[in-house]
Amino acid sequence: MFAADQASRSLGMELVDDGDGSATLRMTVTESMINGHGIAHGGYLFLLADTAFACACNSRGHVTVAAAVAIDFITPAYEGDVLLATARERTRFGRSGIYDISILRGDEVIAEVRGRSRSIRNAANSSTSTDSEESSLDR
């Protein structure tokens, strides 16, 4: 999924690590990401966290989208900062999941994020899915 994500890759994001229910991405804050206060625009931090969230919740192969996401900005990021966003699955239930995402600059927390996901049926693949796959998405 990340390989096809032109929006995230065009900002220089790199997928550092991924696994079942987890993902870590890296992004360097560039001059074009700085707002009128001289700090990284919160939208770029949200985009980094959202991309880590998307990679984590799609890691098992089901098409999954965000149902809701909330972000708490802890401290500003600045031009040149190298940020890591790590997403971890907290729980999955039926077609839904809850994920926590932390954005760090070194050991310092920049932002904390909580995302709720929802797996959807992929119309393009519905004719090829098995009954067991379909029923697992219905739960």
Count every beta strand, where a strand is a DSSP E run of 2 or more residues. Answer: 6
**Termini separation (Å)?**
23 Å
Radius of gyration: 16 Å
Tell me the strand percentage band: 35-45%
Give the SSE string: HEEHEEEEH
Model regions low in confidence, pLDDT < 50 over at least 5 residues: 125-139
Mean pLDDT: 88
The structure class reads alpha+beta
Biggest pleated-sheet summary: 6 strands, antiparallel
- What spatial order of strands do you see in the largest sheet? 1-2-4-5-6-3
| Structure annotation, total helices | 3
Shape assignment: globular
Fraction of residues in H or I helices: 10-25%
Question: Main attributes?
Answer:
139 residues, 21% helix, alpha+beta, 3 helices, disordered C terminus, six-stranded antiparallel beta sheet, globular
Write up what this structure looks like.
This protein has 139 residues and is an alpha+beta fold. The chain has three helices and six strands. It has helices at 6-10, 42-57, 131-138; strands spanning 14-19, 22-28, 64-73, 82-93, 96-105, 108-119. It has a six-stranded antiparallel β-sheet, covered by helices on one side. It is globular.
